[in-house]
Amino acid sequence: MHTGYREGQGGVSYPSIGAIAAKEIGNSDSPLPNFVSIGNRSYGSGFLGPRHQPLIVTDPTRGVENLRSAVQTTQFNARLGLLDELESNFHRTHQEGLGIAHRTTVQRAVTLMRDQGVSAFDLSREPSASRSAYGTGRFGDSCLLARRLVEAGITFVEVTLGGWDTHQNNFERVRTLSVKWTPA
Predict the structure, then answer these.
(1) Full-prediction pTM beyond 0.85?
(2) For 180, phi and psi rounded to 5 degrees?
(3) pLDDT tens, 116-130?
């Protein structure tokens, strides 16, 4: 359910549970993504397409990088217009699916950049007492960010703590993994 991987079903890319939740119960009108994955890796939207692909936040303390434009609004809009021009040429020479996927990704990024809800990704806005209640370290920060994102209306938030797939030294590895996070 987590990965969308179906053994023996080669050739078809199935969606992960987060992508399914984003499609089925997500708010398609929201400028915020419906599926966010916090951590090092996530599984994608498969055949559901780029609209349901997760926004991956690798470092919860940095949030989503590059959300603020480095140029003035008029210059930014001019650049978007140029991109649209270039993309129209791309659409004429490439498969429709690839062009739609690229356009959807750019559109999602620009919409997110322009929305006030993006402040949910900024942990510096959280009171220090609240931050310390989640514990120190990356996992505590990830859980705190997940709470903020759910409160902001994001449908599905996934937090990863690294790999739990133990093939050797199982009991020792699980013991080590289990004490990796300690609350304050």
Answers:
(1) no
(2) -65, -35
(3) 778 899 999 999 998
